[in-house]
Design goal:
Elements (H helix, E strand, L loop, with lengths): L8 E3 L23 H6 L1 H10 L4 H40 L5 H32 L20 E6 L12 H8 L2 E2 H7 L6 E2 L1 H20 L4 E3 L4 E3 H7 L10 E3 L4 E3 L3 H7 L5 E3 L5 E10 L18 E11 L4 H18 L4 E5 L11 E9 L4 E10 L3 H6 L2 E3 L7 E2 L1 E9 H11 L7 E2 L13 E2 L4
Parallel strand pairs: 5-10, 9-15
Antiparallel strand pairs: 1-7, 2-12, 3-4, 6-8, 10-11, 11-17, 12-13, 13-14, 14-17, 15-16, 18-19
Helix pairs in contact: 3-4, 7-12, 8-9
Length: 458
């Protein structure tokens, strides 16, 4: 997308350098991991961060800065003690009518030394926070170690790849042939990686959104939400998109707002800065939203069709729960996303992402990959992640334990239930017929107004 096409938007945000934090007025904490954990378990953390490809030099720098800052604070406390003692001595001398000039000069020198130390402490703390916000979440011990997609672990395969007695087409041929997808007109209206839907294609997209929301709210216990499609910096900081991934976002020029990259951002931020009651957990939210992504760094990848668009629709699932229940909830949420594929009778597989393939905020991620016969491969259609307390720490989102005690950080989980455009792709390619038509899955018939088959538009 270019400024000449959409003057009120731009890819990324030049005013958000990589290490810029939200405004100082923000209530969000900057510490991503307790510094005590870094100090006491530095070697173990080094090993876990190394699995994620973190530059260990930055971790060493962080530990050195933390040590420097704590040493400065010790010196500051000593100077404050000496200043207070000197101030008392000055008061006593003056009360006795004596000359306290020498003592006052000493206090002035102490003040200068304190100002210098405070400046050092502030600078060390600033650099500490700048490094901390670039560190990804720690991987769960069960996550396979690797550097790329090939290192992911296959967990299970559901269904057999669809077979045909003819050469199956890819959706980028099927859609235009049926007159339901128009990539050229989408590009004309906006730019590359935008698509216009027509007729049964638009109806299919709408049907899938309604079907997914009905399933998750009526069968899986989620509360439907319709949050804003525009978010502020604090929201993006809380879920981990800022400051590290500013270039992936669409920023509304001359504002503090961004188009939402996923409703994970809005749903996780609904309770930002709040203390929830344990009895009210888990909180389960399901929401439809358009998603806007600049796809920075993906140029040349998946340029055809609907797989990698700048704008796409998605139904998102988010759960807020206690640490003790979060991995059970992770499996549960993944199962909810899988149910969509099962009801649509689409072949798929589940993989656990390796440490080098996971998202920034995730501690563990399952990807659901649907079979696409027109491309003769499995492609991701949902990522289901447990972020543990990583996002909650950034969002200052806690709960009050039922047995009492200090509030604790919640665990946040998210997953696509599903990416709608990619589900359209899967239906077109798996349900295509030899005459070029596409059957509608049985589960969607109640949502398609009696349409059972998509045929070429006349």
């Amino acid at each position: 997308m270019s400024d000449s096409i959409l003057p009120f938007l731009r890819n990324g945000d030049p005013r958000v350098p990589t290490l810029t934090l939200p405004k100082a007025t923000s209530t969000l904490p900057a510490i991503m991991l307790p510094r005590e954990l870094l100090r006491q378990n530095s070697e173990k953390l080094r090993q876990r961060f190394a699995r994620r490809g973190v530059d260990l030099a930055s971790l060493d720098r962080l530990l050195a800065l933390d040590q420097e800052r704590r040493s400065v604070l010790v010196e500051l406390e000593d100077l404050k003690r000496r200043r207070n003692e000197a101030s008392k001595a000055i008061g006593a001398i003056k009360r006795q009518g004596g000359d306290a000039a020498q003592e006052m000069a000493a206090v002035a020198q102490l003040k200068k030394s304190m100002e210098s130390l405070e400046s050092r402490e502030n600078e060390a703390d600033r650099e500490l926070k700048a490094i901390e916000v670039t560190l990804p979440n720690l991987p769960h011990e069960s996550v396979p170690v690797g550097t790329e997609e090939a290192d992911n672990r296959l967990e299970r395969t559901i269904g057999e790849p669809t077979s045909f007695d003819f050469e199956p087409k890819a959706h980028w041929d099927l859609g235009p042939d049926l007159g339901i997808l128009d990539f050229e007109r989408g590009a004309k209206v906006t730019g590359a990686r935008f698509t216009a839907y027509f007729g049964a294609g638009a109806r299919l997209e709408r049907a899938l959104i309604s079907f997914m929301l009905d399933l998750h709210t009526e069968k899986h216990g989620y509360t439907e939400a319709l949050p804003p499609f525009i978010v502020n910096r604090d929201s993006l900081f809380a879920t981990g998109q800022l400051p590290k991934f500013a270039e992936d976002l669409f920023h509304l020029e001359d504002t503090e707002y961004f188009l939402v990259p996923t409703s994970e951002v809005t749903l996780c931020n609904l309770h930002r800065g709040e203390i929830l009651e344990e009895k009210d957990l888990p909180r389960r939210y399901a929401a439809f939203s358009p998603c806007f992504r600049s796809e920075a760094g993906s140029y040349g990848k998946d340029v055809r069709g609907l797989i990698r668009q700048h704008q796409f629709n998605k139904v998102e699932l988010v759960q807020l729960t206690t640490p003790e229940n979060s991995y059970q909830a992770h499996d549960e949420l993944t199962g909810h996303a899988e149910k969509v594929l099962k009801l649509l009778d689409l072949p798929y597989r589940v993989v656990t992402l390796s440490t080098g393939d996971m998202g920034f905020a995730a501690a563990k991620t399952y990807d659901l990959e649907v079979w696409l016969p027109g491309q003769d491969t499995y492609r991701e259609i949902s990522s289901c992640s447990n972020c543990e307390d990583f996002q909650a720490r950034r969002a200052n989102l806690r709960y009050r334990p039922a047995e009492g005690g200090k509030p604790r950080l919640v665990h946040t989980l998210n997953g696509s239930g599903l990416a709608v455009g990619r589900t359209v792709v899967a239906i077109l390619e798996n349900y295509q017929q030899s005459d070029g038509s596409v059957l509608i899955p049985q589960a969607l018939l109640p949502y398609m107004g009696g349409l059972e088959r998509i045929t070429a538009r006349q």
